[in-house]
What does this fold into?
Amino acid sequence: MDKSTAYTSTSTGNINAGAVTINSTGSITSGGQILSNGGDVNLTTTAAGSNVVLNNGITTDSGSLAISTQDTITATNALLQIGGDATFASANNITLDNSNNNFQGTVTITNGAGNVSITDSDSINFATSNIGTGTLTVNANGISQSGAITQAANAGNVTFNGGDATINLANTANNFTGSVSLNNTGNNNVSIANSNNLDFGNSNLGSGTLTVNAVGISQTGGVITQSFDAGQASFNAGAGAIALGNTSNDFIGEVLLSNTGTNNVVINDINDITLAASTVGQNLTVTAGTGSDISQNIDDAGLNIAGDATFNVDGGRSISLGNTSNQFNGLSFVAKPNTGTTLQNITIANATGLDLQTLNLTGDLTVTAGGNILNTTGGMLVDGVTTLNAIDANTGTTFDINLAIGSNDFNDVSVTNANSLTISDTNGINFAGLNLNGDLTVTANGNVTQAAAITMQEGTVADITAGVGQINFGTAANDFATVRLASSNAVNINDAGSNGIIIDTTTITGRGTLTVTANGTINDTTNNITVAGLSTFNAGSNAINLTQGGNDFSNIAFTGGNVAINDVNGINIGGNGS
It folds into this structure.
């Protein structure tokens, strides 16, 4: 049917035919129902400003529907049940909002400056579509695509409401220029791709996974919320930044973050946040919500951060990043402003070395590194147990630990594996077990004690300075090689190793005493041993030989086999159990 003027039908003007074609130089207003049995329906207007208005439905059992107009397409209440593909082309608004619409084939949309709104009672599949500068709103029970969706530059917002079904818009040729909102429910996955930056609007997702691939990912005002027990949220930004810093975001599943180049990644969560394997081209900043923690999957490929990594939680909260595949460079743990200055527990692992920098913890610190563990900038205050492990898990190579910079204050320290340990403390320090291949150097200004044995290798040196405090290593089955000791208080050393112990430079001032008990010989070096108070040496039936240095004892007692002692001054022998 060709009309040189507008075409109008009333509510009784139904059309029932094999195929229906209406071409009009004016507008088309259909009040009746259009039924096609096996054929296609084509409605076209050619005059500028001409519209297509459907006040009643169109049904095709297997045929396609094509509507083309120079202005708007309006089917606000009209029911569209299309067995084949549907194509809508308009210079302005396209409104297809009947909640019972059913597009069984693909849907193609092309328009200019107006808004597009389409509803499908079932799933909807988009063929290649070119959307103008207006908004795009899609309501369906499942949304997918077989062709790319492209918006004009600086277009309006896009909203995909997928109902209790999946949203699959993963065509990498998509170009959404407006903010995109993704909404669905249930255990249904959501995926979207964009050839440029993808900006999120408010999105409420079900318990499935979320996968985003774009060249830059942002949110200028929208909030991303996952439902309870949701799956992983994956953000792959290519050579672009990831800026998801809205503090109301709520990621329930693990969060994967990936980009390349000198592009930063920022992500916030209103609650706890758990990170999955992530690769970041530049800096990473992660912030958890009020009263919440930061953690990671410890069994995946870990976090590979090219720049600095900063983790922000409330004061008194914890950060657990114990995946040994992590690759950190700069690293900071921060208590958020106005929440206190201390954190609770920190667990951190790295495939290479670590610089821990300033820490203030009320709980425990656990560090595992495949390289040196250092503290090059600030003091470390740890009220709980500090557990350190510096070893390459693949080769067994151990590395040095140096925590001697700044005003540190540790409580209990345990070293599972390390080469050498150098550590300082403004007060006392207690060792809850040390397993070292290299030297031990301790500088403290209080008691240096132990709760478990200290094991060292032959040829190594334990250099312990306690200031005014005691040194008490006399209660466990230690195995030292050589010791250097300095204190103005009591010093007690027990060595259970069969190779005995060597005492190098030792200075015990004030009223300090020295007690050495060994399961082997007790020897000195050419360096001096000076003890102001009583010196007690017990080697069982083994020899005691303290003759090489310019030693200066005050009072001395000994138990051993052959005993030889040199003193540069007088000496008072207080007891001899040989």
